[in-house]
Amino acid sequence: MKPPLFPFPDRPxxxxxxxxxxxxxxxxxxxxxxxxxxxxxxxxxxxxxxxxWERYEGDADLAASLGANAFRxxxxxxxxxxxxxxxxxxxxxxxRRLAEHLVARGLEPVVTLLHYTHxxxxxxxxxxxxxASVGAFxxxxxxxxxxxxxxxxxxxxxxxxxxxxxxxxxxxxIPPGLSDARAARRALDHxxxxxxxxxxVLREEAPGSVIGVxxxxxxxxxxxxxxxxxxxxxxxxxxxxxxxxxxxxATGRWSVWIPPxxxxxxxxxxxxxxxxxxxxxxxxRLHLRSPGKERFPxxxxxxxxxxxxxxxxxxxxxxxxxxxxxREAAALGKPLLVTExxxxxxxxxxxxxxxxxxxxxxxxxxxxxxxVHGFFHWSLLDNFEWLDGFGPRFGLFSVDRETFExxxxxxxxxxxxxxxxxxxxxxxxxxxxxxx
Length: 436
Ligand code: FCB
Prior knowledge:
binds beta-D-fucopyranose, globular, two-stranded antiparallel sheet, alpha/beta
C-alpha cells in the first residue's frame, strides 16, 4: 500500500462545515434515544431533528453555496447495523448517495465513523469494556468503507474519544452512563484499539485513505491566577484532556491521571502509525477552582474573562486560547485540520466577529509554520445539541422548527468571505519544529 497523501495535491486546503448524523438526521433509534426516554437529558427528545435524513442533498448544496470545498459528516451505526452482523443496504446506499452528491458539488467528504451514538445492542452485547467491541467496530469500518470507498478518502474515525470516555464511563452523563474507573480503563484501551484496527481496515478497503481523529481540545485556566492549587488543577486538566491523547498517538502509550485516585494507562504499538492527520475541535476555556464544594477536586466554570462575552449556552468566547492549542497539537508532527469550531448564537450578533477572530488565529498560526490544512465550522445548521436539545443555535443557517426551512444568517456571508481568503492563500506549507 502506498503511504497516504495529505494534504491532497488537488486540494491543499479544506474549508468546510461539520454536522453529525444524530444531530441532523432524525428518527434514529439508538442508545441516545433510550437515554432521552429515560429522562437523562435536559433538552428533550431529538425526534425528527432537522429532517437531514431526507434533506441531505439540499443541505450539501447550502454548504456549496457558501464556497465550501469540504463537508464533514458522521454515519449512524444504529441505522447501518440495526442488529449485530445485519447491515442495512438502504442506509448504506443513502450515505453513498450523500458522498456522491458532495463530490459532484465539489465538496470533499470527511467521514466520522463514531460520533457519540451507538446501536442500543452494542452496549448489551459487545460494550466498549469488552474486547469484542474492537471487532464489532472494525466490522462497521469495513462495511462503511466498502460502501463509500470510491468517494471518500478522508476519515475522522472517532469523534472526541475522551469526551465519550469521560461522559460515558466516568461521570455517567452520556450513554452508556457508567461511573466506574475500571470500566473507563478498559473502554479507553478498546477505543484506541478500535481506532487502530479501523484505520488498517479503511486503508485496506479504501486504498489511499487518510486517517484522522477529531480531538476536543479545551483551554484550562486557574480561577484565581495566583492560587497554587488552582494552577495545579488547570495543568492537570490540560494534561488529561488535551495532551493525553496526543501522547498516545505520538508514542503508543498513555497514562492519564483522573483526580483523585484514577490512573488510566495502556499501550498499543500500532497507534502511532494509525494516524495521518489530527483533527482538533476547539470551542472554549474552563476556569478551575480548588477545593470545590461540589465534588473533588474542585469546581470548573466558564467565565467571561477575556471580555468577549459568553455564547448562548454560556461558553466563554476566547479566540486567543486557540493558537496555543493548535501549536501543541502541531507538536504531534501531523498535518492538522480544525474539525469543529463555532458557537451557539441565535441572534447571530457574536458569530461574525467570532468567525473573523478564529480565522485570524488560523492565519497567524499558519504563518508561524503550524500545518493547518483545513477548517470546519460547527455547524452548517441549527441542530439537536445533545443534552441541551434544540436550545443552542449553532447554525450558519437557522432552521424553522415547524417547517424545517433553512435560512442563512448574516454570518453565512462572513464564512463565505473568510473561505475565499483561506482557500485563496494556499501556499507551500512550512514544516513544524515544535516537539512534545
Ligand atoms: C462538540 C460535538 C458536537 C457538538 C459541538 C457543539 O463537542 O462534537 O457534536 O455538539 O460540540
